[in-house]
Amino acid sequence: MTKNSSNHKNQISHIPLRLLAWFCPRNLYEGIEGDLLEQFENDLAQHGIKSARRRLIWNAITFARPGILLRNKLSLTIIQWSMFKNYLTVAWRNIIRHQSYTIVNLTGITLAMTVAIVLFLIVRFEYSFDHYHVNAKRLYQIKGHDKFGEPQSHVPQGVIKALRDQFPAVEKAVNVLRWDPRVIRVGTENIKQTNTYFMHPEFLEMIDVTWIEGSVEQSLSEPYHVVLDEPTADKLFGNEDPLGKMIRYDNAMDLTVSGVIEKMPAHTDFQFQMIMSYQTLTKYQHQYANEEHWGGGDSWFHGYALINEPSAINTIENQLARMVAVHKDDTNYANFEFLPFSKMHFDTDTDPFNYVIPLWMVQVLICIAIFIILMGTINFVNLATAQATTRSREIGVRKVMGGGRCSIIQQFFTETGVLVSISVLLACGIATLAMPYADNFFNTTVTQTKVWNGSAIAYLLLLILVVTLFAGSYPALLLSGFKPAIIFRNQLSILSGRNVSLRKSLIVLQFVIAQVMIICMAIGIQQIRFFYNTELGFNKEAVVTVNMAFRDSVLLQERFKQQLLQHPEIQDVTYALTSPSSNRNWWWGNVTHHRLLNGEQTFRLQWIDHNYLSFYGIPMVAGRNFIQSDTSRLALVNEKASRDMGFANPQEAVGETLTFWDSNTVTVIGVVKDYHSQGLKVEVPPHLYMYGNWNFQLAQIKIDPEKSASAISYIEKYWRKLHPDNYFEYKFLTEELKSFYQDEHKLSNFIVLFALVGIVIGCLGLFGLVSFVCAKRSKEVSIRKVLGATVSNIISLLSRDFIVLVFAAFLLAVPIGWYVMDQFLNSYTNHVEIHWSIFLIAGCITLALALITACAKSFSTAIMNPAERLKNE
Amino acid sequence: MNKEYLGEFEELVLTMVALLQEDAYGNSIVNEIKQRVDRECNLSAVHVTLYRLEDKGLIKSKMGGATNARGGRRKRIFTITNAGLSMLRVMKEARIDLWKLIPRLNYD
Fold first, then answer.
1. Pick from A364, A347, A398, A390: which is nearest to A144 by CA?
2. How far apart are CA A129 and CA A340, in angstroms?
């Protein structure tokens, strides 16, 4: 019998019994366990070992039912509670006793937590875009691809009409146009108004809009009605009731306010401030009245659809492609795809109403957050492990008094938990205070949304839990493993020597992260500076631009120019459709020529004055420039266009005849040197320049930079005289150019800040460790000094190890940083080359900071009077 | 007493405790149910029912002596109380009274 049962013991798996012991009330446990074992023995005899084991597991699990679980008496927790109170007391005493340690530790982890919280809020904000609509899962943006494969956000009316009429799976389909007027007028006041939209009113039923006054049916059923959002209504009409008030729109039509909606939330691409119906649009711009238009158009003329069965999307896309093929004479489009609302905010292909953020950038932020949390945690582990020896006696006493390993582990987790909770609370406060600045710095609007909601609190709890677990587990396991006998025999130094290598590798890891961040920061900044400072191929300094409302009146243009040129502050004036590098208003045309690939290609169209090229200092490489007497049948192209036509020598392009927009034929008289017309992130597109003053939308004025204030006042004076009904607004060309690189600017801001936080956390950890070592070795240092060691000897003795570690980290960080940034830079057409000096600088910065940190502390130990320390013996 | 209500399974287990007398514990009850009424039941279900009956005061329990079997674990032996017995009796009588009211069936 005995033999038999010991046999079984070997065969039995103890896991189910342990599980049972965990949830089963003490007083019932023995009876249940016995029954389970008996059952196991029976099963073993009847069914064999495998089946018996399986049954045992199953039987044990079935005991986890309320009838058993709820029999757990709470009386046990009274003891646990008093122990817990003791842990808290001890934790508090430790915090008080080792103040400098606590401060270093708490600062490091609070910094990390603050970054983690701020980044969480930002990432959550970016991910929350347009998720809140009731229909969000069924809403899609329609996105086109032209026959050259280029993505387009414009969706022609014909597509929307087809979707409405012929696809039962499409519940609703609409066009939405953002069209910001040059001016609106209320009473006698000219006002600049952005975020104005024309749309099929059903769109307001597809997405969530809160109406204060009016409704979709009432407010937008008539033409010339307008719906405002609340802040705009307040801005335009103050406290008066806006309903029924008149607004003069763009000096073209009078609108009646027929409804008011609440301000759209910050996390939507649809920041509607003024909404007019599509019907109004057809009266304002007649080309939109043609419902069968399948051709191209404004990239802010978007299409959206509400789909009944998302599974039908593929079929719809295929059918649409076939329909496009039918209209191939009227359109450049090849196909249309449906982009779910959840992906819309990350789609950088389209021209968004609000803004988009590349997904990889959000992922970089998540990575940064994880790395910073990791660094904070490492700090904690390092400091706690280093401090372990000072706690050894306490642990010894606890163990001798009967404390089990479990209770010691619990104690250290409690202590970690307390510190982490304090730091998360502090971090919450700091994050709340810092968020408005962060918004400003990173160009986000997180503070306009509700920040502290359920998910944020869940995140905080998760953060506390995870960090406590990671930061607490190593010290807890290490300390609880001390043997009291060894502790009391004072041999702990042997023990603590064991974990030195772990501590060292953690420091290396920390500094690898910090240095990779610094390398990324340095290269990122270089790239941004490259964007800002590279010569674009034209002279951009001291150019002020103003819009011209009368884009086709030669007389008024000429008068304005002559008036300005009277003043010495104004050096030159030219007109064109846009500046050489505007960020909006790009006109494109399908150009046909027999030497182009497949006979046609999309060219950027530009209408320029005869002095435009000389104004900007853009040289000609072949042929001649426009002269005042030229006609609109003549054209210039850029080098890229001449290359695309297959001419090795630009001279050959002169005299060629091109056709654009189907029927406009022009003859090339010259070739313009390439310049970056769309920023440095993309290739130079082929350009076609026409001399046509019917499309001069922008006056560009070169001013004397010394006297810019008076120059601008002259511009304003004459412009206002010319446009009495308009809103005056001027821009510096250099400012406008920067807007090309907003994403990069944002990212470099992120990285600069977080690299700094990273290095600060790293140095704090180093500081903590060095001070610990100094404290431990102060006796040794004193003896060395007595025996004649100099201060510099001592400093190098104490800090050499750490500096070596930082240097090792540098060696690891270089290839990682190089690889990461090489990937990043290769995504740009024009980028800086990674130079070895960057790594040197990054390494020197970190080494210098680490050196300062380590030496500062060891210096104070080194200059200590040895007598002070030794007399205490 | 009258307000107390016993479920079908509870009644079965209570009967088994009465029947097994000094040898009523989790496993023996499971086996007895299997033998007598040919019904498979889960060990944990029997345990939970036993504890519930104990709460109601219909049975009481004590720990038996250790043996070499069951890995040396003691058995929790259940015995029926007077309250339990009278409960069973009341239920049986109520059942018989009802049974008597059923009209006799004719089997031809």
1. A347
2. 12
Q: Which two tokens stand for residue A289?
A: 């009245």
What is the least distance, in Å, from the CA of B73 to any CA of chain A? 5
The stretch A582-594 carries a mean pLDDT of 83
Residue B2 lies in a domain: no
CA angle centred on A629, ends A621 and A645, rounded to 5°: 35
> Taking CB atoms and an 8 Å cutoff, what residues of chain A touch B69?
1, 5, 38, 41
Q: Of A150, A154, A170, which is closest to residue A162 (Cα–Cα)?
A: A170
* Residue closest to A672 by CA, chosen among A830, A543, A537, A531: A537
Domain annotation covers residue B1 = no
Can you read off the two tokens belonging to residue A830?
A: 């024009």
B76: contact with A, CB 8 A cutoff? yes
| A83-113 per-position pLDDT tens digit | 888 888 888 888 888 887 888 888 989 999 9
Split into its structural domains, chain B has a count of 1
| Phi and psi torsions of A169, nearest 5° | -70, -15
Residue A556 vs residue A129, higher pLDDT? A129
Q: Which residue type, as a one-letter code, is found at position B59?
A: I
Q: What is the ipTM of this complex?
A: 0.88
Name the residue range of residue B53's domain: 8-101
Beta strand A687-690 with A634-638 is antiparallel
The verdict on A30 touching B (C-beta cutoff 8 Å) is: yes
Instruction: With CA atoms as reference, report the closest residue to A777 among A760, A801, A761, A807.
Output: A801
Contact B68 A2 (CB under 8 A): yes
B29-67: pLDDT as tens digits? 999 999 988 988 888 899 999 998 998 889 998 888 777
Residues 6+ apart with CB under 8 A from A743: A357, A358, A361
β pairing state of A274-277 and A657-660:
unpaired
Q: Looking at residue A205, what is its pLDDT?
A: 92
- A448 contacts A266 by C-beta, under 8 angstroms: yes
CB proximity A9 to B under 8 Å: yes
Strand A211-213 and strand A253-261: the pairing is antiparallel
Q: How far is A35 from chain B (nearest CA, A)?
A: 6
Interface A-B, measured as beta-carbon pairs within 8 A, has a size of: 74
C-alpha to C-alpha distance for A672 and A689, rounded to whole angstroms:
9
Among partner residues A2, A62, A71, which is closest to B42 by beta-carbon distance? Answer: A62
Rounded-to-integer distance, Cα A674 and Cα A618, Å: 9
Residue A650's nearest CA partner among A634, A667, A638 is: A638
pLDDT at A29: 84
Residues A350 and A153 sit within 8 Å (Cβ to Cβ): yes
User: CA-nearest residue of chain A to B66?
Assistant: A34
Q: Which residues of B touch A10 (CB under 8 A)?
A: none
Nearest CA distance, B76 vs chain A (angstrom):
5
A75 touches chain B (CB under 8 A): no
Tell me the chain B residues in contact with residue A16 when contact means C-beta distances shorter than 8 Å.
none
Residue B85, domain CATH: 1.10.10.10
Is residue B43 within 8 angstroms of chain A, CB to CB?
yes
Residue among A332, A346, A321 nearest A154 (CA): A332
Whether A851 has a pLDDT exceeding 70, the answer reads yes
In a domain, B107, yes or no: no
Chain B contact present for A7, CB below 8 A: no
As a whole number of angstroms, the distance between CA A88 and CA A86 comes to 5
CB-based contact B71 A8, cutoff 8 Å: yes
Contact predicate A666/A633, CB 8 Å? yes
DSSP string, A209-222: --EEE--HHHHSSS
B78 interface with A at CB cutoff 8 Å = no
Residue A73: pLDDT band by 50, 70, 90 thresholds? low
Whether the CB of B48 is below 8 Å from some CB of chain A: the reply is yes
Q: Is B70 on the interface with A (CB under 8 A)?
A: yes
Confidence of residue A600 (pLDDT cuts 50, 70, 90): confident
